[in-house]
Amino acid sequence: MTRPYPSSLPRLGGKPSSQMARILLVDDEKIARTLYGDYLTAVGHAVTAVGSLQDAREALAGDRFDAVVTDLILPGGDGMEVLRHVRERHPGVEVVVITGLEKVDPAVRAIKSGAAEYLVKPVAPEALQHAVRRALTTRDLLQENASLRRHVAMLEAGQRIATTLEREKLASATTSALESMACASAVVLLERDGDKGLRLQGVRGLPPRHEPELVATLVERLSNARAPRELEGLDAAFPRVLSIPAVEGTTVLGHAVLFFDGAEPEWTGETAGYLVRNWALALRNLGRFAAVEDLAYVDDLTRLFNTRYLHLVLDREVQDSVQTQRPFSLLFLDLDHFKSINDTHGHLVGSRLLVETARVVKGCVRDHDVVARYGGDEYVVLLRNTDSGGALKVAERIRRTMETHLFLAREGLSLKLSTCIGVASFPEHARDKATLLDLADRAMYRGKRGSRNVVYMAALDLEPLPAERRQGGSGPGGSST
């Protein structure tokens, strides 16, 4: 069976239900049921009327309703029990309570228990119609907010997947997102390895004893597949299995296989399709990156990204930030007194120290952030989707970690090292790449001229950099003091 494979985010929400809705009316008085039913059908609602708590439970179990209108006094129970039943079993249904008691306590109790509205008899037609309309509007807004939150989470997950350039982390990020957001019970990722065919990239949730056999079967059945499809007869524990190809252009780069042990929400196919599309983008980037990373984008010593890649990703990040209104931040790091370590212990120790510093800094940031060696003993960290407040916290975490870490302990040296860090955020401090880098560098240099081992935030009134830094700083092969 072919499933939809969307090229963009799933659509938000749907048609609001507040214009015409299915209403369950609960009242033990027949005349009240008739009267209130007429009030509600007059404005287009479909009304089902019952006269007791038990009848209400049976109606809710057998049909779907948008709202319940209930009297507070019922035979065999009361309206509060209807309210509790709805809140526990049918959380998307709003409740309007009606009573003849002109007291504050029942109203307070009903509202605290989750009632959307509370009306006192006699109830005018306009009052009931307005109360139901307000309750349904509130319900629609809550559902839309939940949908927005889910879409924001999907956008962030998709970005994490698409920007990951390490295969192991890519598999983990993709399987985790598909499991949590597409409600899959298990996930298998198969990547096409050139002429060798499909190979396992990642797996989550499969029983270990079944994994090898299932993966072998999937490789065989999907070797020539080019479209989403249902896979039958794989495992009795998973009544439904869905395969979605990771496609770039006309090339199938792999397949994501989702296992479900029950019925999944109606948006699962679109959610999975969006996440798999970002996985395909990451696979394409991995293929391109692997061929040129050593020559073009990776620092020979630390294996961090180099300045060429930093400028490339900064250009892209500036463009994305302008389009999405999401901030990002830069941290500019310079090691304190690194030259004296070189002079005392030699350049070989200094080089090892730079490599270990790279590992320490990477351990303080998220997988989808970018850490680059800027030159000598300088590093730059790009923090995605992070404003200045968040960046300041990360910078302080790096500073404290560096300050307490014992470097080259395995070599018996246990050296202490600190760093100055400058922080600048886009678009708060700058609206172009060059200014952002300059402000982060100037903030860092303020610390170098002062006490060192400090974090400074960018400011427009910081002193200009010295001429030697404006002309290139310490350079890729040098070191600062």
From TrEMBL:
GO cellular component, one term: plasma membrane
4-aspartylphosphate: residues carrying this PTM: 71
Protein name: diguanylate cyclase
The EC number(s) this enzyme carries: 2.7.7.65
Keywords: Phosphoprotein
Residues of the Response regulatory domain: 22-136
PANTHER family in the cross-refs: DIGUANYLATE CYCLASE DGCN, REGULATORY COMPONENTS OF SENSORY TRANSDUCTION SYSTEM
Coiled-coil ranges from the UniProt annotation: none
Keyword Phosphoprotein recorded: yes
Phosphoprotein found in the keyword field: yes
Domain GGDEF: 326-460
GO biological process: cell adhesion involved in single-species biofilm formation; negative regulation of bacterial-type flagellum-dependent cell motility; phosphorelay signal transduction system
Single GO term (MF): diguanylate cyclase activity
